[in-house]
Model the fold of this input.
Amino acid sequence: MKAIKLISIVLAVVMCAMAFVSCGKTETKENDDKTTVDTADTTASADNADGKDEDKVLTMATNAAFPPYEFVENGDYAGIDVEIAKAIAEKLGMELEIIDTEFGSIIGGVQSGKYDMGMAGMTVTDERKESVDFTTSYATGIQSVIVKADSEYTDFMEFYSELDEEGTPVAVKEGITIGVQQDTTGDIYSSSDPSGWGFGKENVIRYKTGNDAVQALVAGKVTAVIIDNEPAKSYVEANEGLKILDGAYTDEEYAICVAKDNTDLLDSINSALEELIDDGVVAEIVEKYIPSK
Ligand code: ARG
Done:
């Protein structure tokens, strides 16, 4: 009920991303200069002077501290997004290059053409859609609330000291602090006012990574961490003495973002992604990292 109410109140995040129809051009790197090549035209993907076929590189910006979507394992990038991105690149006949950066700089980098796409368990939101385009959604998530295992709290509603007659929060309990990864939806929702089912900017501590937020919780510096549910489970598994509160904070859809003027790349990624979804490849990858049993 609360979650449903919340969804209707916060920015409309649960949106099916749209498929855009166009034909194949993509931005690629060439000795740091950006050039536009036609991926549909094989004669256009000529080798550079050094013999490397750099025209065929697909750059993906991510923030690789977000298991099981992206993380570093034995020096390599792994996770659901990484494997789906590799499968997309393979279908497009391109080589995937992963760039690990701060989550908050992904959208700007995609907008400026520094990266071809952003894939980072990224939630589709109306606000982000003003800056970038999103592909078809390939996964769903919910925001979860992590607290210490011995916490007195059993529901995030207990973080509020006062509700109005409709049950909408009015004030946050004294001493409540919420840890989040900066620039994520967890940050955006938590930082809104109690009337918007947040906890007020002043009660939110923003960390560089989700893991930093979780370590602050372990150290007793925050009351709770609000983060996507699958990373929440991974963090709870990896750190002793934590638990996830029952009930979802809000529902979300994940998609890949590309620059607004790059509808050709959006179209290429969408057709590859939709094939991978239809063929069950995406489900297989998800099952590998999030076993249903
Ligand atoms: N789904 C959330 C958002 O889009 C969090 C994503 C964080 N991803 C990451 N790789 N750190 O804001």
